[in-house]
Amino acid sequence: MTGRVVVAGASMGGLRAAEQLRAAGWTGAITVVGDEPHMPYNRPPLSKEVLAGKAPFASLAFTPKAATADVEWRLGTRVVASRLAERTVALDDGSELPYDGLVVATGMRPRRLRCPGPLAGRHTVRTIADARELRDELTRPAARVVVVGAGFIGCEVAATAVGLGVREVTVVDPLPLPMVGPLGDLLGRALLRRHEQRGVRFALGTGVAGFEGEERVTGVVLSDGTVLPADVVVESVGSVANTEWLDGNGLDLTDGVLTDEQLRVGGRPEVVAVGDVARFPNARYDGVSRRVEHWSIPTDTAKHAARTLAAHLAGGRPDPAPFAPLPTFWSDQHDFRLQSFGAPVLGLDDVRVLDGDPAGDVLVGYHVDGRLVGVVALGGHGAAMGAARCRAQLLKQPALTA
Amino acid sequence: MKVVVDMNKCQDHGQCVFAAPDVFSMDDDGHLVHVSDPDDTLRDEVEEAADVCPLQAIRIEG
Fold first, then answer.
1. What are chain A's domains?
2. ipTM, two decimals
3. Of the candidates A6, A15, A71, which has an alpha carbon nearest to the alpha carbon of residue A40?
């Protein structure tokens, strides 16, 4: 096969796309373009082991597969524009790369708070560089830390900071409970209690109005006027899709890049999207296209998208079976783990304890029309085993209809 | 094919058990055990297990 596939984005999704293109039979050239200077690395430890100083960078790098030895890596370089009709992308060094196939794998970047105040002392956790800078600040003596955002990353960072011995760690969120958006009230309350028992403070039901300090942040001003003293602020308030380089091609970029059920973009058989930038319909559920920011999604999407693209480039048609991954995520905080299978967020109106007790190990089920659509285990091995048993049930369920 | 698991990295997530149940399993205490020299016919599922390991603790040799 001749020709070239350009993979825009050199994170896990870009790496998996390159690997899966080879596995799907593409023998032509593959060029992966990524703005970080590093080869792809594993991000979950950034908010945990890396922040705690327990994992050196070398331990995060993915092990290269032999089949991808001839992949060209253009690192420290960003794709800044594209002309899909002409099949070219433009890089920030001024060069243009023509392609036969394109994989959109540019992922997300952290959303930042846009309110008054100094920028110094405010951090996000998305890259290895972010985690290293934050670690240096957390290990300053007697640092007071305010985490804005009580989602998974925010709560993981708060737990890690407490584990490092940080004296004051406060999590701020406009919602009344941590992680309540994806998990609902029942687990939100259980998680709040566990975090508080381990020394994390919370300021819930309030937003951030601004930051105090001249050169550097010294406090966080809440919407009700309260000021929380802060030496370090961590902003974990969601993310923004890196799709600006796709502007001007008539694509739906309202939240990531919209794909069809084969992960093709804009009706073009030679352009596919992978990872958390892809907004795809999951045939397992209700037909609504969603982005999914779970660790398993780059691998799942890359496998399906690579088959779609390789079939097209070989002159054939893709397997008509639509993409239907079973979402899964986990989160380690303090000494407990959350383990989820399915789509709990679809079943927040009907949440039931399936086993155990919210005060201890618990297995929670999420339902739509009485049917299980997701499970979350909180606690130890027993809860995780219960979730694993439910996983089999979730896999067997017929698709939800729209 | 030889399967090597870095037990210093492994945190017993069990994703490999779903991907390759003939090679990986959990013992009664919830700790991972595995077959270190599985039949080559299981290569695809072992590769899948290595890919889905959240800690990237599984290595395939040979």
1. 4-47+61-107+242-314 (3.50.50.60), 112-237 (3.50.50.60), 335-396 (no CATH)
2. 0.93
3. A15
